[in-house]
Amino acid sequence: MRYIEHDTVVRRMNGRMVVNTIFKSLFLLATLAALMALVILMYQIVTQGISHLSFSFLTNFASRFPDQAGIKAALIGSIWLMAVVAPTSIILGVGSALYLEEYAKQNRITTFIRMNISNLAGVPSIVFGLLGLTIFVRALALGNSILAAGFTMSLLILPVIIVASQEAIRSVPGELRDASYGMGATKWQTITKIILPAAIPGILTGSILALSRAIGETAPLIVIGVPVIIQFLPAGVMDTFTALPMQIYDWSSRPQPEFQQVAAAGIIVLMVVLLLMNSVAVIIRNKFEKRY
Amino acid sequence: MSTTHVLDQKSKTAGYEADGSLASATNSVYETRQLNLWYGANHALKNIELDIKENEVTAIIGPSGCGKSTYLKTLNRMVELVPSVKTSGQILYRGRNIFDGDYGVEELRTRVGMVFQKPNPFPKSIYDNIAYGPRIHGIKNKKILDEIVEKSLRGAAIWDEVKDRLTENAYSISGGQQQRICIARALAIEPDVILMDEPTSALDPISTLKIEELVQELKKDYSIIIVTHNMQQAARISDRTAFFLNGEVIEYDKTDTIFSNPTDKRTEDYISGRFG
């Protein structure tokens, strides 16, 4: 008595192959749909904005006249903002992840903390804006400065960085820790010499994704009261500033149709900045990537 | 015994000389007294009494889950990396209880090296793998490091195979070579005891043979405790054998005696392959 009738298997093979092909096509379609949306978006923005894109667009301040409007203040402001957000969020995020993964006892409290960090990643950005307004702008009297906005943005992306870093740290094989501890290394030596070098690609990927989110966020900046029209460059972190998404938001809400082109040009600049950030991440990641 | 330590480590082992001479009277590196260990509610080691002799190969055999690896990992307190582990009793290493509050695990582990079941080199160059131990213990001088690396690789009988590729990633060599790199890495901290947790279970027969020959070489200078699933291996390379079953030591004697004339019926059943 055989359970597998090979004739039947052959007869049913066609049906199985059809189902196989159907699902392959479905998944391809899903990918194409996403890709199409992206291509249409890019096409619209590039065709609208390319005419306004010039060197003077990068070097001019904002203006009432669309043909004179430039993005200098916003571009420099966003760079300042990132200069505060990147170190603050990465140091706090990686530190928290290291504590939770390597030092903290695995009990109900740490599980609770972990769960809440994941939940925080889903909190709307406007809520973080309100938090920043209460704590940094008002209570700590930082005003609508780069520092206040930077700290608010850091809070916003901190959960993402912590979760990504935790994953990266957890994925370092336990055997490597064993080998290090087995030779009498302290926890700190094991972290700096073994765990962090192995986890850095993952940590960087998560951090850059989070920073990309921070550079494109508008809502928290609006709540904090970051101005749009600024005719000077910030000289320090306590100065007020404006950022790329604020500037783009302002241009796109103006009635003159020419400003739509200016907004599109601004979006191109923002996307180029994002692309640059991601390339830096890829370069650093490739440099550190090592196989186990 | 301390003369076997190849490099100048006066600073590192100042207290060790005294310990060593103290221990030579009993000739035991480890004396285990009434050791009990629990993983949570699971009583994994029960009233272990075991003396490990110096400059011998001690094999620990027994079926899966009998506690042999747990016991080995208790000897350098690596077992404590598992949360919820509790111990009672004493393990005297050269006369000093390793569970004493003032006995740092880092200190213990510089004297007790470990080789793991799966080759686990660091994702670094061969050189950096060997130099890792000396470096974490504060040796920065390049010349001394070079010397330690060569000495350790020679000690693990792999120098000739890798001497021209020290800067290559340790993952670029075969599994058997990786395991000898791991042994060399353990030798680089100039330990007194080497713990081996089924060091050949992931290796092919030829690599296994090389490691077994190496163990015979190493016991001149080190005391070796090896956990193995392979009874022929225990018979081939060890001087003494302990048979573990369900967290207890059933029998511990000279390897010849254990394999030719065991006193306990269960030992006989196990070594003759009737269970396990």
CATH topology of the largest domain in chain A: MetI-like fold
- The portion of residues assigned to helices of chain B is 25-40%
Largest sheet of chain B: 6 strands, mixed
Distance between the termini of chain A: 48 Å
- The topology string of helices and strands of chain B comes to HEEEHEEHEHHHHEHEHEEHH
Q: Briefly, what CATH class of the domain at 55-76 and 105-271 in chain B?
A: Alpha Beta
Mean pLDDT of chain A: 90
What can you see in these coordinates?
The complex is a heterodimer of chains A (292) and B (276). Chain A is mainly alpha-helical and 292 residues long. Chain A has two domains: 2-52; 57-291, MetI-like fold. Helix content of chain A is 75%, strand content 0%. Chain A has helices spanning 6-49, 55-59, 72-103, 108-120, 125-139, 146-170, 174-182, 187-216, 219-224, 244-252, 258-288. In chain A, α3 packs across α10. Chain A is globular and about 85 Å long. The mean pLDDT of chain A is 90. With 276 residues, chain B is of the alpha/beta class. Chain B has a domain at 55-76 and 105-271: P-loop containing nucleotide triphosphate hydrolases (Rossmann fold). In chain B, the strands form two sheets. A six-stranded mixed sheet of chain B has the order 6-7-8-3-9-10, sandwiched between helices. In chain B, strands 2-1-4-5 form a four-stranded antiparallel sheet. At the A-B interface, α7 and α8 of A face α3, α4 and α7 of B.
Ordered list of secondary-structure elements with their pairings:
The complex is a heterodimer of chains A (292) and B (276).
Chain A: H1 6-49, H2 55-59, H3 72-103, H4 108-120, H5 125-139, H6 146-170, H7 174-182, H8 187-216, H9 219-224, H10 244-252, H11 258-288
Helix pairs in contact in A: 1-11, 3-6, 3-8, 3-10, 4-6, 5-6, 6-8, 7-8, 8-11, 10-11
Chain B: H1 14-24, E1 28-39, E2 42-53, E3 57-61, H2 68-75, E4 85-93, E5 96-97, H3 105-111, E6 112-115, H4 126-136, H5 142-155, H6 159-162, H7 175-187, E7 193-197, H8 205-218, E8 223-227, H9 231-237, E9 240-245, E10 248-254, H10 255-260, H11 265-271
Parallel strand pairs in B: 3-8, 3-9, 6-7, 7-8
Antiparallel strand pairs in B: 1-2, 1-4, 4-5, 9-10
Helix pairs in contact in B: 4-5, 4-7, 5-7, 7-8
